[in-house]
């Protein structure tokens, strides 16, 4: 989805930043969003608060609320997919082969 | 009012709060295979597993074990594990557990991300589960649980139709609708690419290929 939306809208980005936070995705606020996701799954509220503030400083306060919604939703989606054994079809694997290779993403099942 | 985020440090769209209020109302009501009391107990057990909070569980231990696995260890679930579910949890009941736990994880991680206390679980409503039989036209064997065709993310919990309706309602507000997904330039406070980056990184952290 990320590759499709970026390519369709002419946005240049680096998928390696999905798996390696030290690499800039080149999306506006990308580093701040990745750090926010990581902090939200951590255990230190101060780190999460600082991450929120950085997202707000770069993308605006409303972006924090929207990003929190996506974090919540993908915790939901991940559990739906994992617990039901949602298969990754050969078509999806084929379409995403180059992207996965660039990002270093390996299917878990 | 529950899920009124007016006092939060950052702006939250009102439709997110409204979706969470609907979700809590669904959670408290009798489901298809579990009572309202059971559903709240499942939600509480899942929360305990995800965040390490301590709460006495009214669930029978075999049920609690299933809930904890879905909540906190779902990447380890495989076909063999699902095939050996305890007698107290048949496959449709398992699917309803997935729906409950998954939706609570959405609400709870949203609150944690915003530095807010987890919302109190609602008081359960009385009444019996509907025990509405699963749809007949399901595909068996392509996933760990039967799904209505085509086997795909929207159909994950289609064996228990109200659970599909519930997660999609929450997802529409916190992520985007299926119609929005057709637009590569969809934008709220975040552009579509930024939304997908957050989604992809969340899946990476959760070790979920999806």
In short, what is this structure?
The complex is a heterodimer of chains A (109) and B (210). Chain A is mainly α and 109 residues long.
Structural commentary:
The complex is a heterodimer of chains A (109) and B (210). Chain A has 109 residues and is mainly alpha-helical. Chain A has a domain at 15-85. Chain A is built from seven helices and no strands. Chain B has 210 residues and is mainly α. Chain B is built from eight helices and two strands. In chain B, strands 1-2 form a two-stranded antiparallel ribbon. In chain B, helix 2 crosses helix 3. The longest helix of chain B is centred in the middle third of the chain and has 23 residues, at 91-113. Chain B starts with 13 loop residues before the first helix and ends in a 5-residue tail after the last helix. The chains are: A mainly alpha (109), B mainly alpha (210). Chains A and B meet through helix 1, helix 2, helix 3, helix 4 and helix 5 of A and helix 3, helix 5, helix 6 and helix 8 of B.
* Multimeric state: heterodimer
Structural class of chain A: mainly alpha
Order of helices and strands of chain A: HHHHHHH
The share of residues in helices of chain A is 55-70%
- Give the overall form of chain B: globular
- Largest β sheet strand count, sense and barrel closure of chain A: none
**N-to-C series of helices and strands of chain B:** HHHHHEEHHH
- What does the radius of gyration of chain A come to? 15 Å
Q: How many distinct beta strands of chain A?
A: 0
What percentage of amino acids of chain A are in beta strands? under 5%
User: What level of helicity do the residues of chain B show?
Assistant: 40-55%
What would you call the structural class of chain B? mainly alpha
The termini of chain B sit apart by 35 Å
| Principal-axes shape call of chain A | globular
Question: What is the arithmetic mean of pLDDT of chain A?
Answer: 87
Uncertain runs of chain B with pLDDT below 50, 5 residues or more?
none
Count of alpha/pi helices of chain B: 8
Binned strand content of chain B: under 5%
Summarize the biggest pleated sheet of chain B. Answer: 2 strands, antiparallel
């Amino acid at each position: 989805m990320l590759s499709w939306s970026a390519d369709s809208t002419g946005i240049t980005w680096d998928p390696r930043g999905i798996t390696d936070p030290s690499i800039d995705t080149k999306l506006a606020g990308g580093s701040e969003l990745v750090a926010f996701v990581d902090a939200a799954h951590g255990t230190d509220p101060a780190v999460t608060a600082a991450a929120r503030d950085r997202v707000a400083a770069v993308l605006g306060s409303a972006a924090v609320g929207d990003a929190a919604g996506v974090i919540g939703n993908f915790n939901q989606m991940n559990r739906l997919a994992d617990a039901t054994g949602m298969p990754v079809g050969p078509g999806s694997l084929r379409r995403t082969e180059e992207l996965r290779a660039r990002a270093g993403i390996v299917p878990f099942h | 009012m529950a899920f009124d985020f007016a006092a939060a440090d950052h702006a939250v769209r009102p439709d997110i709060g409204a979706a969470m209020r609907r979700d809590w109302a669904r959670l408290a009501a009798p489901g298809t295979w579990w009572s309202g009391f059971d559903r709240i107990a499942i939600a509480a057990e899942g929360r305990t597993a995800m965040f390490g909070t301590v709460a006495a569980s009214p669930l029978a231990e075999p049920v609690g074990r299933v809930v904890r696995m879905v909540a906190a260890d779902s990447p380890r679930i495989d076909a063999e594990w699902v095939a050996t579910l305890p007698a107290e949890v048949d496959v449709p009941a398992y699917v309803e557990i997935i729906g409950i736990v998954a939706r609570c994880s959405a609400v709870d991680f949203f609150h944690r991300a915003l530095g807010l206390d987890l919302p109190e679980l609602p008081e359960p409503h009385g009444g019996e589960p509907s025990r509405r039989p699963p749809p007949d036209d399901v595909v068996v064997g392509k996933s760990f649980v039967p799904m209505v065709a085509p086997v795909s993310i929207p159909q994950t919990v289609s064996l228990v139709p109200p659970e599909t309706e519930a997660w999609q309602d929450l997802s529409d507000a916190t992520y985007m609708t299926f119609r929005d997904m057709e637009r590569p330039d969809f934008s709220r406070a975040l552009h579509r690419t930024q939304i997908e980056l957050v989604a992809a990184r969340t899946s990476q952290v959760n070790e979920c290929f999806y």
